[in-house]
Amino acid sequence: MTNPNIIKMSKLYAPTLKEDPADAEIASHRLLLRAGFIRKTASGVYTFLPLGQKVLSKVENIVREEMDAIGAQEIMMPALQPAELWHESGRWSAYGPELMRLNDRHDHEFCLGPTHEELIVALVRNELRSYKELPVSLYQIQVKFRDEIRPRFGLLRSREFMMKDAYSFNESYESMQKTYDDMSEAYGKICDRAGLDYRPVEADGGQIGGSVTCEFMALAEAGEAELVHCTCGYAANTEAGECIAHPTVYDVPFEKIATPGVHTIAELAEFLDIPESSTVKALSGKNDEGKLVVLFVPGDHEVNEIKAARAAGGFELLCDEEMESYGLHKGSMGPVGLPESAYVIADRSLEAVPQWVVGANEDGYHYVGARLGVDFTVDQWEDLSVVRPGDSCPKCGLALEGARGIEVAQVFQLGDKYSKAMGATFMDEDGKEQPFIMGCYGVGVSRTVAAIVEQHNDEFGIAWPMSVAPAHVCVIPLTVGDDQVQPAAEKLADDLAKMGFEVAIDDRSERAGVKFADADLIGWPIQIIVGKRGLAEGKVEVKRRSTGERIDIALATLEEAFAFAKRNAKGRAFEANLLQGLFS
After folding, report:
1. Domain that holds residue 378
2. 51 located within any domain
3. Share of the chain above pLDDT 90, in %
4. d(Cα 506, Cα 8) in Å, to the nearest integer?
5. For residue 475, what pLDDT is reported?
6. CATH number at residue 506
7. Comparing C-alpha atoms, which of 559, 415, 579, 581 is closest to residue 500?
């Protein structure tokens, strides 16, 4: 057999491991290492071995096809970026310690790009000059760097990773919205083609910025992101989702009561024998102007720091010494008797609660029945809480369900944030200089590989969807070196390869059990077992990896099924056609 397109297991560099690596905490990390797809180079840094590179390339090609389909153009920018561009945007200091910084031999400052907003703006600001040239969308697939404080979970949180980042330049917000919608639709197709169960969710712009953004979350227990979703289609990251909480009223007269040793909401609820939703939680901090701000949320919820900073104009928690200087006591804060300088912001769900159970601003004491508008006032009502399962959906009012997810992609509406800061303008139809209206759009390519494994695995190994598998089919001869089984297996592999299928053959001199275990561990979608007994009847055994289903099928029928699938191949219908032809 001489077909160069066939993967020969006897020649393949894919060292498998029998035991789980000690530092692999989740399925994707464990299985990608065990199955010989990746190897750890340093903390958060991985080498992709031949099988891993094949899967990575498959995901990249899906991304390219969907980007090209909406008119985005591929470029390649350097990973090494001059610091002066980041100073122009104001992000050199704002981005924080995750930005990998270095100096060259001339002591010029650079960074290894975690993203490329600055570089792309610098690229086009002297090239795109007229509204007639807009809109333009440019993208790249390139390695990125982020100095994670705690790299973990293999490819899910690494310091070096592969990413597709795209940037659009538009003349108006209406034009940018059209590009944003096109990109969002393309991202949905990418997730579908990669075989992901995902949700587009409302999100926060984070270090990228922008007023509107959406994350594409692959649902997985190993996901670091928490999200809520509803049967009506609404979904949101808990960091960004609107919270409609349901605090309950503890209807008792206003009274100051001793609560010795009570410092947490759980302890207070237990002491009073009431639900946590009948208590009110307090946090104190300073805004960017140094003003004392005290926040109140329902006791069964947490303060959302992003929302708090937005509502207060910045929010930094007070340390113990600062709290003492204001006469505040941790675990006993409340709105009654606060310092006159305090600015009070409360979660808007509490506006309908006439009586609060709160701290008395005295260690070991709390108030019950504290009356809103009588015993205390609130300066500002805002959505301050982290949304949680059981809260009401802001779209339909039904109770939200919770899930965990892996962020595999995100789209942002940037507006003129970077173009204005960096002086990137074009001439509009009236001959006036205007800043570009921008969007940016990212797909975590290597992270998508890990997300796929998180959703497609079992106790035996990986079960790749056909679209991203390192090969569509693996032919497994039960014996090699003979004049019957091996030649038949090689001919079958060659015939399938000539049809255009991606084929592997396990031509190693290993026991059948070893080959079967490795085939399941690696995750070939279709396994064809060739043995003497079956060949005597003109048959082979076919196994579907994702379900474990096995059938005996005539060789002629097998090739007809593959030929039919190839003739009717179109997107994910290819996999469905093949499986239907084989297993129906």
Report:
1. 255-382
2. yes
3. 86
4. 6
5. 98
6. 3.40.50.800
7. 559
